[in-house]
Write a structure and sequence with these properties.
1 helix, mainly beta, five-stranded mixed β-sheet, seven-stranded mixed β-sheet, Thaumatin, globular
């Protein structure tokens, strides 16, 4: 029994100290709202997988995503304001990202990116977010494999 517990502790310790795989992007979700929320994920118009983490006020969670993942994030308080990502689609080893209010505005967001850009959307028609679906000037890219931080209610 002692040996199996020791083995389990060793496996957990190794998992904690090993770096994330090189072919992933990391998203840290932070809730700066005064209320709890769920982070909702949808796969670029395909629906699902739904809630990925529940966050009390001032809490965060971190999730790693593999290459070729296209995914959108919103808050459970509404699903109109979106942070949209495509992680290393195979085109020039880039992660693509943007904020969108095409479907309306309901939750303020700030996105901190691996290339040190800061996108903020705290009101409808915010200048850092897509206002209409063909507004490609609001799409950004950076080298794949970095860490993004998405802050709700910045």
């Amino acid at each position: 029994m002692f040996v199996s517990k020791l083995f389990l502790v060793a496996i957990v310790a190794i998992a904690i100290i090993l770096p994330k795989p090189a072919d992933t992007a990391t998203v840290i979700f932070k809730n700066s709202c005064k209320h709890a929320l769920k982070v909702i994920a949808s796969q670029s118009g395909k629906g699902g997988p739904g809630p990925i983490c529940s966050l009390k006020s001032r809490k965060s969670c971190t999730i790693h995503y593999p290459n070729k993942t296209s995914i959108n994030f919103s808050a459970s308080t509404g699903t109109k304001t979106l942070a949209e990502f495509t992680f290393n689609s195979g085109f020039d080893d880039l992660d693509w990202y943007d904020l969108s209010v095409v479907d309306g505005f309901d939750t303020s967001m700030r996105l901190l990116t691996p290339d040190k850009k800061v996108l903020t959307c705290e009101k409808p028609n915010c200048p850092d977010a897509y206002d209409f679906s063909s507004d490609n000037s609001k799409t950004h890219a950076c080298k794949s494999g970095g860490t993004f931080t998405l802050i709700f209610c910045p």
